[in-house]
């Protein structure tokens, strides 16, 4: 931003509008800053000096193979994950791990145990850092404790609260460089901060397992639609019955299955199961999550290592069949099978596990409410074509309703605009 005429200090209003309108941040070469582009993943960049000008060109060096459902076994998943972990334990500085009450990060720690063969690694410290908030949807301490006891981990707990999120929001926006979708990444920031305080310079993490093995709720109707096509209506119906419950209301789930099978949506998240997983991995959720994690970790000088994203394991999961992804009422079926004798039964068979969330609505209608109202007065809302509508929606959410997600976006966008374009030096 200091390069004057070469880089205009202006927001990219089109990108900002997409952020406000969509429920995810699609990967793009464009950034939120007009005139600044981002090097795509799996590309290298070459700069050539041509007189007094610099010419740039880029080329892709890795490509995800096309999905070819075939066979990938429990043993292969274990072997690939274990070897990925073994490589990522190489370090001259202390290593720890994040720890949740689900399957992903505990699977990584279970692999650490497997490759260490019961011996204490020179640099891996059996410390798991876990963030929680005093709210049912954000408190997994009982599951984390069970995982830690089985795997021999010491837990370092980090309590989250809305007041601290409010105090650190400007710094978080600055470190991220762009507005983000919700305050849950504040929890991740606190995990890496605690890791740094503990002297951990490398952290293992379970990021990527949801995209590879199908851990999101939207996966289930797509799996059932694929099963309907491959094995008939009866197989789909039995599968839907297995998933039915508070998380997947039966008739809602059936409606989603029908839409996934017949709608053939081309934009957004594809209806086809394997196209959707590929989109999540390459264009939608994962690139955004990795971006958050890289900036959160490096804000505290901590390197995040992600064993699930070893290219060999990523390529192997392109052979998953629909039944490997969700089966018998549980997503990530094959990963759960691979961890059967490594993780606690209660954790493997959780039906209430969702993506980690902080009590967002409670915070936004409490400690952050005044900040949201102040954010609605930012001048950016006069520059955006739909600025008034975004402000009105944010105020309506504060007044009531099930969600405050748009209110947070308005707050975050205004703080970002203020930091980089109003009070920047």
Task: Please outline the helices and strands.
Blueprint: H1 13-21, E1 43-50, E2 53-60, H2 74-88, E3 95-98, H3 104-116, E4 124-133, H4 141-151, E5 154-160, H5 162-176, H6 184-197, E6 202-204, H7 209-213, H8 219-231, H9 233-243, H10 250-262, H11 273-282, H12 285-298, E7 303-305, H13 311-316, H14 322-325, E8 326-327, E9 330-331, H15 333-338, H16 345-348, H17 360-364, H18 369-375, H19 380-383, H20 387-399, H21 405-422
Parallel strand pairs: 3-4, 3-6, 4-5, 6-7
Antiparallel strand pairs: 1-2, 8-9
Helix pairs in contact: 2-3, 5-21, 6-12, 8-9, 8-10, 18-21, 20-21
Task: Characterize the structure shown.
The chain contains 21 helices and nine strands. The protein is an alpha/beta fold and 425 residues long. The strands form three sheets. Strands 5-4-3-6-7 form a five-stranded parallel sheet, sandwiched between helices. It is globular, with a radius of gyration of 22 Å.
């Amino acid at each position: 931003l200091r390069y004057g005429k070469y880089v205009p200090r202006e927001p990219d209003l089109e990108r900002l509008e997409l952020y406000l309108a969509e429920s995810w941040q699609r990967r793009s070469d464009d950034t939120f800053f007009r005139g600044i582009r981002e090097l795509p993943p799996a590309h290298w960049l070459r700069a050539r000096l041509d007189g007094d000008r610099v010419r740039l060109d880029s080329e892709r060096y890795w490509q995800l193979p096309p999905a070819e459902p075939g066979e990938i076994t429990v043993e292969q998943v274990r072997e690939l994950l274990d070897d990925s972990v073994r490589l990522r334990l190489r370090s001259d500085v202390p290593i720890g791990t994040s720890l949740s009450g689900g399957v992903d990060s505990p699977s990584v720690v279970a692999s650490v145990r497997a490759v260490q063969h019961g011996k204490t690694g020179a640099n891996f410290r059996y410390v798991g850092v876990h963030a929680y908030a005093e709210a049912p949807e954000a408190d997994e301490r009982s599951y984390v404790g069970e995982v830690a006891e089985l795997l021999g981990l010491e837990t370092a707990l980090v309590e989250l609260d809305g007041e601290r999120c409010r105090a650190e929001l400007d710094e978080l926006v600055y470190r991220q460089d762009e507005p983000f979708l919700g305050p849950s990444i504040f929890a991740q920031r606190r995990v890496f901060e605690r890791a740094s305080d503990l002297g951990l310079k490398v952290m293992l993490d379970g990021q990527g397992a949801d995209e590879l093995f199908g851990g999101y709720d939207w996966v289930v109707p797509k799996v059932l639609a694929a099963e309907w096509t491959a094995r008939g209506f009866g197989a789909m119906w039995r599968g839907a019955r297995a998933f039915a419950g508070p998380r997947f209301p039966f008739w809602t789930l059936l409606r989603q299955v029908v839409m996934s099978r017949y709608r053939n949506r081309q934009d957004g998240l594809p209806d086809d199961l394997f196209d959707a997983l590929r989109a999540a991995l390459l264009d939608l959720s994962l690139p955004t999550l990795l971006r958050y994690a890289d900036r959160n970790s490096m804000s505290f000088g901590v390197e995040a290592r992600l064993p699930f994203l070893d290219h060999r394991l990523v390529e192997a999961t392109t052979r998953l069949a629909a039944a490997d992804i969700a089966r018998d009422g549980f997503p990530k079926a094959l990963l759960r099978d691979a961890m059967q004798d490594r993780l606690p039964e209660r954790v493997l068979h959780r039906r209430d596990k969702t993506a980690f969330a902080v009590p967002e609505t409670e915070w936004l209608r409490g400690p952050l409410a005044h900040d949201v109202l102040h954010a609605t007065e930012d001048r950016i809302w006069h520059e955006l074509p739909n600025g008034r509508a975004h402000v009105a929606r944010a105020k309506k959410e504060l007044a009531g309703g099930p969600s405050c997600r748009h209110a947070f976006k308005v707050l975050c966008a205004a703080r970002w605009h203020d930091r980089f374009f109003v009070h920047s030096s």
